[in-house]
């Protein structure tokens, strides 16, 4: 087979933190000269109006940050374009925009799992790493914006799975604190999850959130989705223990039936209406739930696992510049503005979204407003990255389809994991 740039990119899979030998053959690394083979200029020139494209502005704070920028930059205004709430739908629209080489999108708010795909396809422009002090960013976030050692997206908001729990109900069950294990969680629920209150929720709809929840369950049970060589390892007793936790949860009612339709926002609403004792969720929910009916009755703890604390998945969003955009100099300045300490700090105060700058985790005012900041930092530092794959869309689909089949009972967990292993194996061999 002739190794065209496209076929080269199909081979690139990088395991969490480990670059496969074959990545040397991956696309995207031969354009140091500043312009790529498709003619999109990598030079960051041009000033004028731009757009910021991202999922729904759930907190409303992004628009506020944009308004503040616009007031200072009347000739370089930013227009916020909101895409759907769900990660996969956002990716689809950004991919379509890139494939059409449209200049409609300037700054892309990329999920950490899309960097490799967008960089390898040259849909985003390499960024001048020397203009950002990377030593100020939380260590795990740095790699999420790099592809083959080059900076393509600046870490903006990071994410790790946390356990939101009802303090009143945990107390009522006689527990001394939040559960550290899956069994402790069940024991608490046996006592208090009744009369319309379900036990445990997460993100179980068939989309990226399910890949996150599946990975967390597998990692918490001591398994891995891919090993250090980037080979899938989902047909293992540990992966089975993880998937069984979720599948049996649905069978036994430990996870309420309706949670199969939960993405982040559906789960949040259920928790805020008092319908759940426990919810696996990202940091953004904290500030929103502080304005809800459960505002004085919840707290946040590390995720539990089978034998002790579990292993959260690393999430987050980084800022990149579309290769096809105009006014890239303005875009670069705007990225610097959003990732500066004052803006990251103000954003956390307003939204509880996790900042990417390390210093903010020791900030007295933030600590007072968000007493769980140490728990968050600890969860972020131990969080496991999802596989970094150029064909991430196919990779995650194979996980989603099979995990969903197990949760809905159309496949046994053994069958789902065997099928997942085979499909992931095919993708990583190409
Ligand atoms: C959050 C995370 C992101 C993840 C998504 C899944 O937005 O930051 O990394 O892919 O949730 O729904």
TrEMBL record:
Any GO molecular function: maltose binding
Signal peptide residues on this chain, from the entry's feature table: 1-21
UniProt keyword list: Signal, Transport
Region (Disordered): 26-57
Bias kind Low complexity: ranges: 32-42
Alphabetized InterPro entries for the sequence: SBP
One record GO biological process: maltodextrin transmembrane transport
One GO cellular component, as annotated: ATP-binding cassette (ABC) transporter complex, substrate-binding subunit-containing
Coiled-coil spans in chain: none
Family to which this protein belongs: Belongs to the bacterial solute-binding protein 1 family.
PANTHER family (alphabetical): MALTOSE-BINDING PERIPLASMIC PROTEIN (PTHR30061), MALTOSE_MALTODEXTRIN-BINDING PERIPLASMIC PROTEIN (PTHR30061:SF50)
Name of the protein: ABC transporter substrate-binding protein
Organism: Actinomadura rubrobrunea
Taxonomic lineage from the root: Bacteria, Bacillati, Actinomycetota, Actinomycetes, Streptosporangiales
């Amino acid at each position: 087979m002739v190794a065209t740039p496209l076929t080269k990119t199909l081979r690139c899979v990088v395991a969490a933190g480990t670059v496969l030998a074959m990545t040397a053959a991956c696309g995207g690394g031969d354009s140091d000269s500043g312009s790529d083979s498709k003619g999109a200029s990598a030079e960051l020139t041009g000033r004028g109006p731009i757009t910021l494209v991202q999922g729904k502005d759930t907190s409303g704070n992004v628009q506020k940050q944009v308004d503040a920028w616009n007031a200072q930059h009347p000739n370089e205004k930013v227009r916020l374009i909101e895409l759907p709430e769900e990660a996969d739908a956002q990716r689809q629209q950004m991919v379509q925009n890139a494939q059409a080489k449209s200049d409609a999108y300037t700054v892309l708010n990329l999920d950490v799992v899309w960097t490799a795909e967008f960089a390898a396809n040259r849909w985003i422009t390499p960024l001048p790493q020397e203009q950002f002090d990377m030593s100020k960013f939380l260590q795990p976030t740095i790699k999420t914006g790099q592809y083959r050692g080059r900076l393509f997206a600046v870490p903006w908001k990071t994410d790790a799975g946390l356990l939101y729990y009802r303090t009143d109900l945990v107390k009522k069950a006689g527990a001394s604190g939040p559960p550290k294990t899956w069994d402790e969680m069940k024991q608490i629920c046996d006592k208090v999850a009744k009369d319309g209150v379900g036990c445990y929720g997460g993100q179980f709809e068939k989309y990226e959130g399910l890949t996150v929840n599946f990975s967390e369950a597998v990692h918490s049970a001591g398994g891995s989705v891919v090993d250090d060589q980037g080979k899938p390892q989902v047909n293992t007793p540990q992966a089975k223990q993880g998937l069984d936790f979720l599948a049996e949860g649905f069978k036994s009612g430990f996870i309420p039936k309706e949670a199969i339709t939960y993405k982040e926002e559906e789960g949040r609403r259920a928790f805020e209406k008092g319908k759940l004792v426990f919810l696996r969720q990202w940091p953004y929910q904290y500030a929103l739930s502080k304005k809800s009916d459960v505002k004085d009755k919840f707290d946040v703890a590390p995720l539990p696992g089978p034998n002790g604390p579990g292993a959260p998945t690393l999430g987050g969003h980084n800022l990149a510049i579309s290769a096809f955009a105009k006014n890239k100099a303005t875009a670069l300045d705007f990225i610097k503005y959003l990732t500066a300490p004052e803006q990251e700090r103000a954003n956390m105060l307003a939204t509880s979204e996790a900042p990417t700058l390390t210093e903010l985790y020791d900030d007295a005012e933030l600590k007072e407003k968000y007493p769980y900041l140490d728990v968050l930092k600890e969860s972020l530092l131990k969080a496991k990255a999802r596989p970094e794959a150029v064909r991430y869309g196919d990779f995650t689909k194979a996980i989603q389809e099979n995990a969903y089949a197990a949760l809905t009972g159309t496949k046994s967990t053994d069958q789902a994991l065997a099928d997942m292993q085979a499909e992931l194996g095919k993708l990583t061999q190409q």
